[in-house]
Structures are given as C-alpha cells and as structure tokens.
Amino acid sequence: MATVSSSCPLDCPDACSLEVSVEQDRVQAVRGADTGTTAGFICSKVARAADHLYGRERLTHPLRRVGPKGSGRFERIGWDEALGTITSRLLQVRDAHGGEAILPYSYGGSNGYLTEGSFDARLFQRLGATRLYRNFCALPSSAAAEAVYGRMPGMPYAAYAEAQLVLVWGCNPHATGIHLLPHLRASRKAGGKLIVVDPRRTRLAADADLHVAPRPGTDLPLALAVAGWLFEHGHADRDFLTAHATGVEAFRAVCASWPVERAAATCQVPAAQIVELARSYAEASPAALRCGWGPERNRNGGSATAAILALPAVANKFGPLGGGFTMSNSGYWKLDAGLAARVAPSRTRQVPMTSLGRVLTDDRSIRALFVYNCNPVATCPEQARVLRGLAREDLFTVVFEQVHTDTAELADIVLPATTFLEHREVHRGYGAYVFHDRPPAVVPHGEARSNARVFTELTERLGLAEPGDPDEAGVAAALAAQMGIEGAPHHPDPGRPFQDFEPWTADRTIHLMPSAAWYAYRPDPAPERLALISPALGHLVSSTFGQLMEGLQPVQVHPDDASERGLRAGQLVRVFNELGEVVLPVEVTDKVRPGTVVIAKGLWKRHTHNGAASTALCPATLSDFGDGACYNDARVDIVPAEAQPS
Ligand SMILES: Nc1nc2c(c(=O)[nH]1)N[C@H]1C(S)=C(S)[C@@H](COP(=O)(O)OP(=O)(O)OC[C@H]3O[C@@H](n4cnc5c(=O)[nH]c(N)nc54)[C@H](O)[C@@H]3O)O[C@H]1N2
Ligand SMILES: Nc1nc2c(c(=O)[nH]1)N[C@H]1C(S)=C(S)[C@@H](COP(=O)(O)OP(=O)(O)OC[C@H]3O[C@@H](n4cnc5c(=O)[nH]c(N)nc54)[C@H](O)[C@@H]3O)O[C@H]1N2
Ligand SMILES: [Mo]
Asked: Which of 113, 127, 215, 551 has the fewest CB atoms within 10 Å around its CB?
C-alpha cells in the first residue's frame, strides 16, 4: 500500500491537505495530512471518498439517451461517438441559431483552476456561447466585502484561538468548515465568550453564551442597530475611523434610523439581546467576527453582509492578534484561470444561472445546454421550471458528471468525469490560506476523463484550437507564476490589516457608506408566512455525495408552528407555495425559531416523498447587491399531506 499526498478541492473553505492510501491504483482510505489548517483530520464525507469513486452510481462510460427524456433509458456508447455527437450537434445549433443558443452551465462541483474557468471557458468563448452569470453563491457577500474593504484578506482560523470573544454570524462550521472548531474551542477554554446569530440553534449556538435568532433576512437592521448602539455609547473608535475610514457620518445616520427597539421588532428578537450583543462585542478584546453565507441569501444580502462587516471597523477590533473578521478569503488570491488558459474576453449575452428554469421555458432561444460541475435539478431555484425546461425534447443536453445525478437523468448525452483524486488539480482555500498543485492520486475509474481533457478535445474537434494554447502543465505554470511561487502545498501568511497592509479599496480606506444606495432595508416578502431556509448538511457538499445518503429527509418545524397547524412529529406534510411543493416528514423541534422552517439544501429526488427539493420553493429573485440567489426568501405554508392546499 502506497501513501500519496493530495488535497480536496470541493466547495468548502478548508481546502484540506490529504493523505491517500492507494493499492493497485484504487483509493483505499483518505486521511487528513498533519500540515497547515488540516492538522491531521478531515470530514467524514471525504474520508469516505472511496464510496463516491467506486459506488454503484459512479459513471464509468459515456451514455446516450434511448427513451423519452427523463425515462432513465440510456445505452452505453464509446467516447468517440459521444464527442462526435456533441461536436455535430453544437455545430448544427450554432449554424442554425448562433453561438448564443448554446448555454454552458457550471458551478460549485470543483473549486479548482484546471476544472473550471480555464479549458471550459476557452471552448465556450470561442464558440460564442451565452455567458453564465454564476450567482448561486457568494456574490452578495463578495460585493459587500469589496465595497467596504476591497476584499482584503481576513483572519486565518488559528487566530481565533486568541479571541476573548467570537461572534459567529450566519455560519455553521460544524457542517461547513470544521477546521475552525479547534480554534473556537481553544478560545473558549481560555475563557473567551461565544455569540451566535442564526435563526437555528446550531450545535455552536447551543454552546454559546448568547444565541440571537432573528427572522431570516433581517440581519441588516440587526447589524445597523448594533453599530448604532456602539456609536451612541462611546464605543466607536473616533481616532481609528478618522485615520482609516470614509463615510462615517453617513453610516452613523443610517444606523440612527434603526434604534434597538425598532430593530428588535423587525428581527423578532428581544431588544435586550441586541444590547447584550453590542455591549459584549464592545467590551471584549481581542474580538473576532466569523461571517458566513447565511445572511447573504436573501433580498438584503449585500447590505446585510456589509453592515455586519462594518462592526469591527466601527469598534476598531483590528489591533491585537485574535481581532478582526473573516468572510471569504478568496479575494487574497490574485489568481486568474482564464488568463492562465489564455481565454479571450467574451461579449456575448449573459444570463443569471438562477433563471435557468425561465430561460429554458419562457423563451426557447437556448437549444443546447452543457452542464458540468453542477447539479441544477437539486440546486437551482424554481425547480419545477428547471425540470420542465430540461424535459424539452428540442433541447440538446449534455451532462458531464461523476455520478448519475437527477440532472444526468435528463441528459441526451452523459459523459463520465474524473473525481479530484483522479486528475491533477490546482486550487486554493477560501477559509484556509493554502495553495495546492498536485498530481492525480490514482488512475481514472472506468473510462472517466478529466474536464481539462474533454474540453481540450472538444475544442480541437470543433476546429477552435489555436497554436500556443496552454495545456494542463502550462496553465498550472502560469498560475504559479501569477502567485510568484514554486512547489506545493503552499501556506502563505496573509499578514494583519493596519499593521502589515491597509484595506484593498482604491483609496486604501474602509468605506462604511460605499454609496447612498447601500443599507436600504427591503421588508419581508410575506411576514405572515413561514420563512423557509435551506442550510448546508454535514453529510453533503451542496448536493455532492447525495447518492450516498439514505432515507427521507425532514422539514424542521418549531412546536408552536406545528401545533397551530395540527402537525404531528413524523407525519408526511406538504410544504408549498406558488412555485411548487415538497412532500416529506415533519420533525418538530425547537432548534428552529418560530416562523422559520428548514429543509436542507442539495437534496435529491430520493430524499423527499414527492421527489422535490427545497429549491422547488425557492424564488429566482436577486439580492440588492451582487445579484445573488435569494434561496432564503422562500415563504411557505404547511399542511398535513392528506389535506389539499387551499
Ligand atoms: N458539509 C458541507 N460543507 C459545506 C457545504 C455543504 O453543503 N456541506 N457547502 C459549502 C458552500 S457551497 C458554502 S457557500 C459554505 C456555506 O457555509 P455556511 O455559511 O456556514 O453555511 P449555510 O448553511 O449556507 O449557512 C450558515 C447558517 O446561516 C443560517 N442562516 C440562514 N438564513 C439566515 C439569515 O437570514 N441570517 C442569519 N444570521 N443566519 C441565517 C443557517 O441556519 C445556517 O446555520 O459551506 C461550504 N461547506
Ligand atoms: N435550496 C438551496 N439550494 C442551494 C443553496 C441554498 O442555500 N438553498 N445554496 C447554493 C450554494 S451555496 C451553492 S455553492 C450551490 C452549489 O450547487 P452546484 O454547483 O450544483 O453544486 P453541487 O450540488 O455540489 O453539484 C456539483 C456537481 O459537480 C460534479 N463534479 C464535481 N467535480 C467535477 C469535475 O471535476 N468535473 C465534472 N464534470 N463534474 C464534477 C459533482 O459530482 C456534483 O454532482 O448550491 C446552491 N443551492
Ligand atoms: Mo456555496
């Protein structure tokens, strides 16, 4: 048995360093390497990666649909036939309807530079395809971090151990980034306080000194009220703000319009909790803020995140080690896969990926869809429309996948993709500061091929290859050159703001009031209805690994909401709104706040009684800044499954 070094590029902040036990070119076991943030442990999902690689649902050869769309009838074909069919169909579509009739569709399956934004981007740019506005995640929070701080690097996880207070706002590290946890524990052990802001009582919230559970989508007034309290009670650091911030008075005026009592009523939390949060944060030093992606997934997402990120500026928490904030650290890496792969700029039309259902059903201008690194049947809003669109017999759909997902079920051609242990990858963390460039750990299972190989071959078959196009090694070398390093893994020290660097905005100051448009609160879309949120599950990464999760998943409902509707624990219920319905068992639990219900993100057909996911209830509306997805603006009603919705 050999041990091979590798790394995990799945969509998770931690980007773990791995040790893979390999025998006869098969993965036997995967463990965390004893380096950097990984510190010798990994999540149970990736520890079980062999089940994903060699499981029953792994795709091992190309398939061609033989029955009607969605019938699930496919036959095995060879790569030559598969790529030949794709080439001729894409050319037919382009000749008859123009390049913009082709829509490439990809998102979070791979956070690596050799599998997204490089060879794929080169192909679709040269085809003149419609461009995808990739807005499932992180755009509102990136817009906020960009506007306020120019996306300067945040605190590394290890610094949290030094904090006297940690404020975790809309983040669930027990599921979504477990390598923060040892440092939170160290802070607690040294007497540090913990405050959690989350509509759910997560494991972290259950452990906290204070848990504030606002109505989803109300973080903006909550954070403004906290900032306002800091200003009014002498906890704003005037000297620091004069030296390092702009827009201070304008921001203060906005905060003043959200006195604690008004915010408490809007957020549906006790006013005393807002004051306790503000006072504890003001008095503790060092104080760390971990902001997650919960606050961004609604109509106020950009402004809400900006107001949360303003707190360490107002109270100047940047001084000592253990103070500051972490949002996404992806802004640290000045890496550009498109540049490395020499992708020319594209000026074709762009469509937001959240509107897939509408784009495919309203107007029929898309004739060919190429899905990779993504499982939109599970993850795209307005699932019923997505399914109707994918059922179109006149739509030519390619799904390039590792396993037989619910999206692959609706393809004309299915291509088998390698997993991250079967191809070279170059990637970085967006929580952990780590950069990886490492070879495959094992040869591909069956006939699976990497994105790099498939997109390069399609570029050639379509007659779009150009002399000097860099290959995998060329792209990897260009990325290393962009960073100015050699060798991997690489663990940079980002340094500390206001000691080692100033904010990364153009004028090097914090912009508390980026423009007059920020911080305008958009009220709840339906305050009298239940708010549905769909957070990450520990067992999955979005929908990835869903084929390995058995059994029906529940909707979680607070006891008050359950008794008001006559719902009994375990019974099947219909959760519905104007977009669709999900039929599944109810779990009655006070882990969710009243008025809020939870169905996990990323569920497959097999996980609910009627085969619908939470996305069946999620609108395709866009956030205030960044035009991000508003999954958590879903408003729903619930009735026992035998009753008809009125
Ligand atoms: N195991 C696992 N790890 C993952 C993922 C996964 O699916 N599974 N997904 C990865 C991806 S793609 C991402 S983007 C990150 C996400 O990482 P996180 O942001 O930690 O995860 P989420 O579940 O999206 O949301 C965090 C918390 O926000 C809460 N929340 C929901 N709405 C609101 C709100 O309006 N206000 C506040 N304050 N809180 C709210 C939820 O209850 C949840 O506990 O994790 C990554 N890591
Ligand atoms: N209801 C609800 N839904 C949500 C959210 C929510 O809050 N609520 N949040 C959203 C978030 S945060 C995100 S990031 C999105 C993610 O949504 P998606 O982008 O759909 O991510 P996954 O569900 O992980 O699906 C990725 C797929 O890519 C495949 N894949 C992985 N690596 C490769 C590769 O190298 N090549 C190819 N060809 N395929 C590969 C995997 O097998 C997997 O099926 O989901 C969103 N969906
Ligand atoms: Mo995400």
From this structure: 551
Residue bearing tokens 């040869």: 443
Q: Any idea which residue has 């448009």 for tokens?
A: 517
Amino acid at 184: L
What distance in angstroms lies between residue 537's CA and the mean position of ligand 1's atoms? 9
Q: Which residues surround ligand 3, an ion (CB under 5 A)?
A: 137
What pTM did the predictor assign?
0.98
| DSSP H or E segment with residue 148 | helix 139-149
Ligand 1, CB within 6 Å, residue ranges:
11-12, 108, 137, 169-172, 175-176, 197-200, 202, 216-217, 219, 292-295, 298, 533, 535-538, 540-542, 602, 632
Examine the domain organization and report whether 73 and 126 are in the same domain: yes
- Cα-based angle 497, 503, 509 (whole degrees, multiple of 5): 125
Measured CA to CA, the distance from residue 360 to residue 384 in angstroms comes to 12
Same domain for 350 and 421? yes
Residue 138, CA distances (Å) to 135, 145, 194 in order? 7, 10, 25
| Ligand 2 geometric centre to CA of 136 (Å) | 9
Residue 586, domain extent: 530-640
Question: pLDDT, tens digit, for every residue of 372-420?
Answer: 999 999 999 999 999 999 999 999 999 999 999 999 999 999 999 999 9
Assess whether the C-beta atom of 553 lies below 6 angstroms from ligand 2. Answer: no
**CB-based burial, 135-169: b 16+ in 10 Å, e otherwise:** bbbbbbbbbbbbbbbbbbbbbbbbbbbbbbbbbbb
The phi and psi torsions of 370 (rounded to 5 degrees) equal -120, 105
What's the 135 CA to ligand 2 centre distance in angstroms?
A: 12
Q: Are residues 50 and 67 in the same domain?
A: no
CA distance linking residue 592 with residue 95, whole number of Å: 53
pLDDT digits (tens, 9 = 90+) for 44-53: 999 999 999 9
Atom of ligand 2 nearest to the CA of 403: 42
Q: How remote is the CA of residue 456 from the centroid of ligand 1, in Å?
A: 35
